[in-house]
């Protein structure tokens, strides 16, 4: 290998290192931009990019000049039988969080100096959607928060015992009988504290061995909102 070839190889190695550095820089900047968008939104990422290009340090006041943080809610229950729902969470201190119920602005909660807010709203029957938006005293708004879905119902669920009829007298040598019924839109059915398996249409069958005399049964069903229907059944067995 001649000395000129050796020099050419050194130059190529330097060029390769320079390209690697440039590629690494682009990967780093791209990753930083994606993280900024995820954390602060597009407007925040643009603001950070402008600050970096001017060679100025990133300041919180500059970061939130055009965008406010999205309010964060503590977990909200999925179903309830009460119209009053308490909401709580945190956002930018000393501002407000507007609460939207089914896309209507129904209330505004004050955020205290520690960044916390709490309050209650009145639900409408059925499926409700809830989200919040941070708003400052200059009417600047954040993007909307995560949307929560909650079911509000206050009517007892449907429950029917089909057979045997209540207060029936069972005269048979076979003490095993099937208690048959139907429950609709429920999450749980029990008979004398035994969990019952429901068919897709809500039908159920509970086999029980009767004792001589009165046999009492308590049938309870609950819907997702914890509304309850309860029936008491009695079967008299005479072998």
Protein model, in words:
The protein has 239 residues and is of the alpha+beta class. The chain folds into 3 domains: 61 residues; 81 residues, Immunoglobulins (Immunoglobulin-like, Sandwich); 80 residues, Immunoglobulin-like. 23% of the residues lie in helices and 41% in strands. It contains 2 helices and 16 strands. It has a 5-stranded mixed β-sheet with strand order 2-8-7-4-5, with no helix packed on it. It has a 5-stranded mixed β-sheet with strand order 10-16-15-12-13, with no helix packed on it. The radius of gyration is 33 Å and the shape is elongated.
Tally of structural domains:
3
- How much of the residues is beta strand, in percent? 35-45%
Strand ordering within the main sheet: 2-8-7-4-5
Sheet of most strands: 5 strands, mixed
CATH architecture of the largest domain: Sandwich
Residue-averaged pLDDT: 83
Low-confidence segments, given as residue ranges, are 2-12, 60-64
- CATH top level assignment of the largest domain: Mainly Beta
Q: Label the overall shape.
A: elongated
Distance separating the two termini: 111 Å
Rg of Cα set = 33 Å
Counting H and I runs of at least 4 residues, what is the number of helices? 2
**CATH superfamily name of the largest domain?**
Immunoglobulins
Structural class: alpha+beta
Total E-strand runs = 16
What level of helicity do the residues show? 10-25%
Write the H/E string, N to C.
Answer: HHEEEEEEEEEEEEEEEE
CATH fold label of the largest domain: Immunoglobulin-like
């Amino acid at each position: 290998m001649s000395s000129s070839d050796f020099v050419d190889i050194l130059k190529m190695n330097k060029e390769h290192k320079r390209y690697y550095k440039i590629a690494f820089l682009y990967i780093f900047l791209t990753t930083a931009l994606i993280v900024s968008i995820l954390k602060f939104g597009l407007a925040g990422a643009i603001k950070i990019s402008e600050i970096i290009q001017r060679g100025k340090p990133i300041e919180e006041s500059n970061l939130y000049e055009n965008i406010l943080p999205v309010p964060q809610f503590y977990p909200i229950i999925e179903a309830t039988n009460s119209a009053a729902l308490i909401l709580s969470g945190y956002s930018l201190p000393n501002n407000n969080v507007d609460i939207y119920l089914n896309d209507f602005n129904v209330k505004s909660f004050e955020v205290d100096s520690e960044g916390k807010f709490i309050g209650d709203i009145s639900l409408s029957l059925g499926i409700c959607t809830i989200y919040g938006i941070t708003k400052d005293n200059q009417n600047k708004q954040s993007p909307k928060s995560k949307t929560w879905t909650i079911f509000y119902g206050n009517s007892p669920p449907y429950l029917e015992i089909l057979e045997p009829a209540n207060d029936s007298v069972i005269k048979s040598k076979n003490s095993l009988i099937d208690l048959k019924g139907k429950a609709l839109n429920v999450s749980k059915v029990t008979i004398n504290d035994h969990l019952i398996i429901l068919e897709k249409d809500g039908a159920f069958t509970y086999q029980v061995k009767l004792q001589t005399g009165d046999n009492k049964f308590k049938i309870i069903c609950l819907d997702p909102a914890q509304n309850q229907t309860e029936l008491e059944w009695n079967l008299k067995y005479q072998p």
